[in-house]
Specification:
The structure holds two protein chains of two kinds.
Chain A lengths: L1 H10 L10 H7 L1 H4 L25 H5 L2 H17 L5 H4 L4 H15 L11 H4 L7 H17 L4 H11 L3 H4 L3
Chain B lengths: L6 H14 L11 E2 L5 E2 L17 E11 L4 E11 L3 E11 L3 H4 L7 E14 L12 E11 L2 H7 L5 E13 L4 E10 L18 E11 L4 E8 L12 E9 L4 E9 L10 E10 L1
Antiparallel strand pairs in B: 1-2, 3-4, 3-14, 4-5, 5-6, 6-7, 7-8, 8-9, 9-10, 10-11, 11-12, 12-13, 13-14
Classes of the chains: A mainly alpha, B mainly beta.
Chain lengths: ~170, ~280
């Protein structure tokens, strides 16, 4: 918690915690940077947190119809997952506003759309969720459906899935 | 989605799918049933464990396969169960019907060779689908106990035995970024025509290392096309050719798939150029 505040302060270029009144930190907390999101304990930011290297060139970014397409795919993916009784419970206690934002960042980063991924690494975000392969595969199905919905070509879908597939090892715990 | 014509039908199909689909792997990436019952292509073995279930459960399927050749008809049916994406147990019954050719062979019309194949396959290392960041394929080892019918005729032909065990190592890799599936297997076997004509031959009762390979291209979520090749020993002194085919596999959904192929089984029991149509239906979960 304290670390989060320090981090927030550092981000905003605020003075050191002991020098500033507590109220000032609240104002600069990430929840204000990303409206509607719950606060998250501090963590090291790194592009490597995205879990894979981005594609080269702009071919994949165009295949996904740029930022607008990625936004639609992620929203469709999350909507479908929330509507799926097999896995919807997993999402219940989590911040869906933050999930949508960080997923969009992650997809954009991996598709070489020029975004920074500001989220946590794959191991940390899935820790203690008790995910099984079945859950991971259900999510992949919804992603496929979302990509179908966006009319992304099958082979480009597979290229993207190839980036995500190894994350199974970090996401699945049992 | 290929199958739905109107908006209403599509909606219905989508709903049915979300209700019926249990869990599992990507469509078609778990292969179909070989004629010997194990998960694979039609004639070549894959390292993948049959069924769409992952390590969280049990997958199973049944299949029926027919091949019409110029001088013979081949039929097979069987079942396979995959446990936790780790162990596969399979059974297949094969019939090789000589039809009218039986008369020319002096065996009588519709004389039918056959065998039962009991298989076990164990996934040893790797994951063909998840490990996209590694070159390591999924590797499995397996064994097939085969018991042929018509032992009298088989020993007359020169076969040493009417039963035998094949041992194999198979490697499979799904190259998702290329939508490509590659498989290779090495089989230690004494089988003549995979066992339909018994095991071993005159002065030859040794195991031979034979190769099975296949490549499949995933064209859509539901359609894959590819080719297979399988080498075979030549124990009986009758000419025995390698087998090959080109195939198309279509998944209607996660429960039903159809595989159609054009197969070249070469010379079988002195009858040359046994090329024909292969059709296999598989149902499973």
């Amino acid at each position: 918690m304290i670390q989060a505040l320090i981090f927030a302060a550092a981000l905003a270029g605020a003075p050191t915690p002991d020098a500033a009144p507590a109220l000032a930190f609240k104002v600069e907390h990430p929840s204000t940077k990303y409206p509607g999101e719950e606060e998250v304990a501090d963590y090291p930011h790194a592009a490597a947190n995205a879990g894979a290297q981005p594609f080269e060139g702009d071919r994949m970014w165009r295949a996904f119809h740029g930022q607008a397409g990625v936004d639609r795919v992620v929203d469709e993916l999350v909507d479908r997952s929330l509507a799926d009784p097999r896995i919807s419970d997993i999402f219940k206690s989590h911040d869906m506003v933050r999930l949508r934002r960080t997923l969009k960042e992650q997809f954009c980063y991996l598709l070489n759309g020029g975004c920074d991924y500001s989220g946590r690494d794959m191991k940390t975000v899935h820790k203690d969720m008790g995910l099984q392969n079945t859950d991971f595969d259900a999510l992949v199905e919804h992603l496929q459906a979302a990509m179908d919905h966006e009319k992304i070509g099958f082979r480009d879908q597979n290229r993207f899935l190839a980036k995500l597939a190894p994350m199974q090892r970090q996401a699945v715990e049992r | 989605m290929l199958l739905c014509a109107g908006a209403l039908l599509c909606a219905h199909a989508a709903q049915a799918q979300s209700e019926l689909r249990p869990s599992g792997k990507l469509l078609l990436t778990e292969g179909v049933s070989t004629i010997e019952g194990s998960g694979g292509g039609g004639i070549a073995t894959w390292a993948l464990i049959t069924g769409y279930e992952t390590r969280d459960g049990i997958g199973a399927n049944v299949h029926a396969t027919g091949i019409q050749l110029p001088d013979y008809q081949f039929r097979a049916y069987g079942a396979a169960v995959g446990f936790r994406d780790r162990l596969e147990l399979s059974y297949a019954h094969q019939e090789f019907d000589t039809q009218g050719t039986g008369v020319k062979l002096g065996l009588g019309r519709d004389f039918t060779f056959g065998q039962d194949v009991y298989g076990a396959k164990l996934k040893v290392v790797g994951d063909a689908i998840y490990d996209q960041d590694s070159w390591l394929p999924q590797i499995s080892v397996g064994a097939q106990y085969k018991k042929a019918a018509q032992s009298g005729v088989l020993s007359f032909l020169g076969a040493k035995d009417d039963a035998g065990v094949d041992w194999y190592v198979a490697a499979s890799k799904v190259f998702l970024d290329e939508s490509l599936v590659l498989n290779g297997a090495v089989r230690a076997t004494k089988a003549n025509q995979t066992g339909l004509l018994g095991f071993g031959g005159p002065g030859n009762d040794d195991y031979h290392a034979e190769f099975e390979g296949s490549a499949a291209l995933l064209l859509t979520k539901r359609l894959a096309v590819g080719l297979e090749y399988r080498t075979k020993p030549n124990n009986l002194g009758l000419k025995e050719d390698d087998w090959m085919d080109v195939f198309a596999a279509f998944a209607l959904n996660k429960h039903l798939s159809v595989t159609a192929a054009y197969v070249d089984l070469g010379e079988i029991a002195t009858f040359k150029d046994q090329r024909g149509a292969y059709l296999s239906l598989q149902a499973g979960f």
